[in-house]
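Weekly puzzle thread! Below is a chain. First person to post its structure in token form gets bragging rights.
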Amino acid sequence: MPSLRHPRSVTPRRVRRARRGLTLVELLVALAVLSAGLLALAAATASALHRLADARLDDESAWRAAARFERLRATSCGARTAGQASAAGLVERWTVAYGADSTTMRLADTLVASTGRTRGFAVEVPC
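Winning reply:
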């Protein structure tokens, strides 16, 4: 009866041995994927910081414009004048103009940050 065993020459010793470790190509691919992930994380962080700075500028500008409008409303129509003030890196410019029917006044306030970003606000108040 013939033997059912395969001769050893059919399965070379190299193929049967388990691979251990990483090849250089696998290592380079892993480093490329890791680098891309870290770069994306850095870009997302920079974007978040930029948006946070814009939000802070919006908040500070709105607060200052509201305070300016309240000070202008507290004065009589004839005493309201345009002007400029600066503090904490923001330059504030406001204008006063009569409406078309002379019963309202348009108050405009523009704030410019030291970075060059501007925010503008306007309101009409009765005289």
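Puzzle host: Confirmed. Bonus trivia for everyone else. Residues 8-126 form one domain.
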